[in-house]
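Issue: copy button drops trailing tokens. Both records pasted manually instead:
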Amino acid sequence: MSWISLSDTDRAYYVETGTGTPLVFVSGWGGDASNWVDDMAFFGRHFRCIAVDHPGIAGQPLPESTFSTQDMADRIVQALRALKIERAHILGHSMGGAVAQYIAIRHPDIVERLVLCGTFARLDNRSARVIASCGELMQNCDEDAAMRMIYWLIFGAQFYETHLDTIDTLFSMRKDNPIPHGVFVYQTETCLSHDSREHLGKIQSPTLITHGTADILMSPSLGEAVANMIPDATLFSLDNAGHSHLWEYSTTWRKRVMAFLLGEA
């Protein structure tokens, strides 16, 4: 992990591997750069892979006030500019996909191709209640129980039945390297306040939306709505996959995304 100065008082932590056209990974609610290690190893064969951690992660200070998806987008672009990156592919998952939307909306000059995974233009009532409740659980209840509930929400039923040991290993790894409670607190509000519906039509970069058909955290209809609002966007659905479809069916997902980024599909 390295850090890059954004100003006299702020710096961003990031990880990087590979060479070629930059591919920037944007983490979701409560996620960090470690989530992308295997993906960066795979895509790093063709791209310069970079993941910039959000505030509050890896010892970075928490935001002093509300920190929106627009703020997150601007901060990531600020880090890319500091790294002398003028053009990049942008890939975001969940809240990270919401942030990626605003990178493309507010900074179209930097976005080559855009990949949005399990994301939303605005949370529906059910997703908003779930995110708010999980945020409260993380703050006020047993942390292990709260994290187990979150892991139940982000993986599909089929994956749970066939890969329980994998899920337990991921849970143990996160327990050993916990995300600060304050991150969940501010990012809960970040998710609840995101509404890009009036702006998605401005996105001109080629866009791929991926979503699991069995996503119980973000309904597939949310991904479909994003695809319908972005000009000429392509929707790729993974059957029986949950919110973490990109990791549940990593081989299929990576193959489709790689083809898109290389301009082959």
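Record 2 (pasted manually too):
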Amino acid sequence: MADESKDEKDNDLEAGDAPSGAGGKGIMMVMVGLIVVVETAMVLFMVPSAEQVSAIAEANLIKSIEETEQNAEELVDDENERQEFPLGMFGEVFSPYDTEKTYMIEIDLYGLVRKKDLDKMKEEFEKKGGRIRHQIRQKIRACSIVELNENNHAVLQRRILAGCNHLLEEDLLLQIGIKSYRPIEQ
């Protein structure tokens, strides 16, 4: 009988008591559905909308433009920075037209040039240095007693500036400065 009950159990298992694939398929379908729902939720809540993407892009663009403008302003400021260019030391003996006395002037001059124009000025001064120095000497000799007064250097500086810039291809000199000045009456 033991054999019969064993045979009956085997027949029962074959007949339909054995676990069918339907339960496993159901669990698998639920898992796939759950994954699809989770992924859809992630896409909806984690991926930014078109408006959000455009707002982020616009903010980045504005920031980039502001940085570029600031860098450009700094570059322009740097290019327009004024630097001294030495024009030389001059010692001139002359007699002003409004007096019979003879004077000697020792004057050390420099010109203010934009940083971006400094190389051009060096080239021009190498080519035309003699003419520029001659022009400066002429302007010094053309001074009157009043113009030689230390309180009145502005007239002399303007004359030298105009004469030098006239010789240069461009107006590279912005201003003429005096490092040292010493008039001596002889």
